[in-house]
Amino acid sequence: MEHLLIVEDDINIRETLQEIFELSGYKVSTAANGRLGYDAIMEDCPDLVICDVDMPELDGFELLQAINQRLKNAVIPPFLFLTAKVEPSDLRKGMNLGADDYIFKPFDHTDILQSVRLRLDKRTQLAHKEGPKQISLNNDGYDKLALPCEEGLILVSFDEIIKCQADRAYCTFHLANEKSILVSKSMKEFEQLLLDNNFLKVHKSTIVNINYAKKYLRGNGGQLIMSDDSIVYVSARRKEELMKVLRHQNNFDIQQPK
Predict the structure, then answer these.
(1) pTM for this prediction
(2) Pseudo-torsion of CA 245, 250, 253, 255, nearest 10°?
(3) Which one of 7, 24, 81, 143 is separated from 64 by 20 to 30 angstroms, measured CA to CA?
(4) What is the DSSP letter of 198?
(5) Are the C-beta atoms of 6 and 116 separated by less than 8 Å?
(6) How far apart are CA 123 and CA 98, in angstroms?
(7) Structural domain 158-255, CATH architecture
(8) Greatest C-alpha distance within the chain
(9) pLDDT digits (tens, 9 = 90+) for 123-155
(10) How far apart (Å, rounded) are the C-alpha atoms in residues 99 and 51?
(11) Domain ranges in the chain?
């Protein structure tokens, strides 16, 4: 039995869709917001997701972005966005994130069943023809990082992050608002995404946003003084790469240690 996940904050729409699909022979799960939808996708691996765009916690676009980031090159279930928005910019944003189709509110029962059946059949045909499909992802248009922590999934803008530091199987993100987020994943999970967004690895345990560095003290490896006055140690093997970057920073303060 094919498994559908409905992510929708409006209980009336959510229950109506659940009834439509269960009467048509599908197994149906539901989630009342984007954060719960993220958890359901990670735990249950549905065959297809029908997702509202405007929701509290995480909206539909943020949810799909977080799924892309977390699953990386794994097969991502087809995403159908449910929305009243018809602006071309909204349509492009969803498609750029990998949405398969849009269903517009108010929707017709027959049309929504046909759209779901079409996407499921298409995914099955591709799987038989090509085998498991690897989805190539990049970060074009992504401006936030999805961080799993005790409070649930938190989306943080890249430009809010001062640095990420490894702590065994965990890592800590230090933010410009003086907050820190302890994340239940290793720094390795986020390394490539950070590097792709102009961060720099200066030590095996530290990746920094160079825009928040305010002073460099020369040494065997050296030390970076960050905007929050924290000290980041630079390994000798990464010093040369750092210096190349700093030389392009106008009037950057580079000092000899006292």
Answers:
(1) 0.64
(2) 60
(3) 24
(4) T
(5) no
(6) 14
(7) Beta Barrel (2.40)
(8) 76
(9) 776 655 544 333 333 334 457 788 887 777 788
(10) 10
(11) 3-130, 158-255
d(CA 211, CA 189): 22
**Considering the chain, what is the average pLDDT of its residues?**
84
What Cα–Cα distance (Å) separates residue 139 from each residue in 58, 135, 155, 203? 18, 13, 15, 24
CATH topology for 3-130 is Rossmann fold (3.40.50)
Instruction: Work out the average pLDDT over 151-171.
Output: 88
Cis upstream peptide for 106 (omega within 30°): yes
Q: Do domains 3-130 and 158-255 have the same CATH topology?
A: no
Give me 252's structure tokens. Answer: 């950057």
User: Which residues, in sequence order, are bridge partners of residue 223?
Assistant: 217, 233
**Residue 56, both tokens:** 């509290």
Cα–chain-centroid distance for residue 229?
29
Which among 76, 56, 69, 62 is positioned nearest to 5, based on CA atoms?
76
Angle between helices 34-44 and 60-71 (to 10 degrees): 30
Q: What contacts 168, CB < 8 A, 6 or more positions away?
A: none
Give the mean model confidence (pLDDT) for residues 221-234: 91
Alpha-carbon span 50 to 30, nearest angstrom: 9
Query: Tokens for 235?
Result: 């390994």
214 neighbors 251 (Cβ within 8 angstroms): no
